[in-house]
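Appendix B. Raw example, untouched.
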Amino acid sequence: MSEPSSIQMVIFDMDGVLTDSEPLINAAAIAMFAEHGLQVLPEDFLPFVGAGEDKYIGGVSEKYAFPLDLPAAKRRTYELYLAMVPNLLVAFPGAQNLVRHCRKAGLQTALASSADRVKVEANLEKIGLPINGWDAVITGEDILAKKPAPDIFLCAAAKAGIQASRCVVVEDAVNGVVAAKAAGMRCVAVAQTFPKHLLSGADLVRDTISEIQIGDLAPSHRQC
């Protein structure tokens, strides 16, 4: 991997990094399962955080050996989730400022989320970082192999025309950290979803996104 001073683009995960959306999608999925007569626990979903809703829902379905029409279950989960977004979804403090500081510092910014585009668009619009403001946006529908595979980050780099070694990823999930490192990218993690010790595979771990400085992402750039 190139030295971090050569960084040209910052790739942000969305859920758990920019937005405090994990509790909402968790509640929506639990409610969906309840509608089907199965009571599941919030922690059942933890191994699948960051891997996209197919795995997020499907993994829990498999755990309980509970037959499920996955496309229909995902659609219903998104319906329940999107109903919560207007009143309950918020950005993590400092998230918008960090994205804007990256752009002001001359770094390209990309969004790489394993979620479907409908969720990505709703979240970004709600937190004031609309989808048309990014140099590249990759969703779970754009790639076959989800995190911890590196495909989503490699796709973001390719779409922006940036070498993988010149990208840094901001992640909150174990699967995302593994994916970023597998892509040959620098990774700065935030312990907003998982505890720090589970994110030790990242190059740097901060407690929250508000603590990240431009120098953490690309040391040759000064904080603006």
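End of appendix B.
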